[in-house]
Amino acid sequence: MDSYNLDRIGFIGLGIMGKPMVRNLLKAGYAVTVYNRSRPAMDELATDGAIVADSIAHLAQNVDVIITCVSDSPDVDSIVFSENGILSSVLSGMLFIDMSTIAAATSRKIFQALQTKGVSALDAPVSGGDIGAQQGTLSIMVGGEKSAFDRALSILQAMGKNIVHIGEAGAGQITKACNQIVVAMTVQGVAEALILAKKSGVDGAKVRDALLGGFAQSKVMEVHGQKMLDRNFNPGFKLDLFRKDMNIVLQTAMQEKISLPGSANAAEQMNALQAQGKGELDFISVLTLYEMLAGMI
Fold it and tell me: How does DSSP classify residue 50?
């Protein structure tokens, strides 16, 4: 593969996560070209110093590294394989980093396709929500060749703190699926605990403070527990996207022929919330489901 300095980054997907990630890359001194389906986010980042691309192909022709952070497997698939996608524009030696949460099978397909072009591909999904994206403290779990990971590390360090090379292509996405299992079930546990406290006439804020000092302590209890107490359901991570992630979890479990009853239960709770029109809220809105079951609303 030809050698690239990797100073010019193209970033596709400027949502709740992507926009602050771009800002952190700009702060780190990288030249960042951006592309998004809607114009306002691009214009906003242009005021911060980003270069705006007219198309995916235009972006791919003018950068050394391409990063994607979009919603689902079909979105990444289209970015890579569509008629004017990056596969038709990349050059040998470039680096592709997908930071979306998608199916591991899609990541492996992209890895193999880009290899034929001499392009290294990494699947590098993240955890940490919008706060982690803003603060540059994301946990980044990476699949792909170790040599590509080493080339990408300084770029990833501009966006995250806990950066782990997991293994071969797709391993990052499997790790993210594991992450979502733990987060979904922990959010459920925190919601149940706070409902029990409130229904029993006990101060939920003091319960949270006490639990933060013991084995029940977690980032979910710290951050989302407070948001539940504040009834702040503004999306750091939309329920609709979390439900998509749990679909990946359950599909992977089916492929591996294993039972994940806790994950299935969490997914059913998400279905109930979506049926109530709460898909645009944060998943911590599961609190309202428990309130309803407890006769509190």
Answer: P
